[in-house]
Amino acid sequence: MKPLQVLAAGSLRHVWPAIVSAFQQDYPAGIETQFGPAGLLRQRIEQKEACDLFVSASTVHPQALLQAGLAQQAALFCHNFLCLSVRRDRVDPAAGWLDLLRHTDLRVATSTPGCDPCGDYAWQLLDRIEQQDATLGKQLKLRARMLVGGRDSPPVPPGKLASAWLIQSGQTDIFIGYRSYAHLLQPADGIITVLIPEEWQTHADYGYAVCQPEGNKLAERLGSSEGQAIFVKAGFTAIEKQGPGIPAP
């Protein structure tokens, strides 16, 4: 009997130990998980790397594996949203999120689109801003630097959040990232979290792909009431009860 092989999005790293702890009784040989940007993990599966269950920060990548015949099923299992992580000593904490992005002296960073879904969602936000304010949107696209999650991006140091590391190391002043990280930032980090209103949000839809039958049971557990409670406690948003398969947008 072999351990279950899981490839999981890096943004699940802080919640995954609780998932494994809750459901490891289903896998006596254990659950081995490797984390990384979901787009790059998908490429590894396409290159025939062993994987029983792929857990992605986007439904696009599991669906692509399903269509390519490299997965047996795919489904949505939770949601996430975006927020701004901002260097505290550079800004007025009372400033609104758009006011902060308008400050041209504040550097803005995102993850890398295509490789990391967080980057895709961040740039969808920039597209939405451009639709409402063409000048600001175009300026932000010129200013925003893609600093993590790419093929050649330096790895985030172990135990560090990408947003905190980028800001504390002086690489940026604002990072557009996942809201699920907000509760992990401590006051001593020198970083504040600024929420983005619902009407501007891009839903980050997390999906899985069962690549081998061994992954079925854990995949089912992710959508169970116990699994959903674990995700909500970690800052994600639960899904409503649904049948198998990723719904069309």
What does this structure look like?
With 249 residues, this protein is an alpha/beta fold. It has two domains: 105 residues, Periplasmic binding protein-like II (D-Maltodextrin-Binding Protein, domain 2); 119 residues, D-Maltodextrin-Binding Protein, domain 2. The chain is 32% helix and 22% strand. The protein is built from nine helices and ten strands. The strands form two sheets. The protein has a five-stranded mixed β-sheet with strand order 2-1-3-10-4, sandwiched between helices. Strands 7-6-8-5-9 form a five-stranded mixed β-sheet, with helices on both faces. Helix 5 runs antiparallel to helix 6. The longest helix has 16 residues. The termini are far apart. This is Molybdenum ABC transporter substrate-binding protein. InterPro entries: ModA/WtpA.
Give the CATH architecture of the largest domain. Answer: 3-Layer(aba) Sandwich
| Secondary structure category | alpha/beta
- How much of the sequence lies in strands comes to 15-25%
CATH class of the largest domain: Alpha Beta
Strand order of the largest sheet: 2-1-3-10-4
Briefly note the CATH topology name of the largest domain.
Answer: D-Maltodextrin-Binding Protein, domain 2
Largest sheet: 5 strands, mixed
Q: Could you give the distance between the termini?
A: 39 Å
How would you state the average pLDDT, rounded? 93
- Morphology call: globular
Oligomeric nature of the chains: single chain
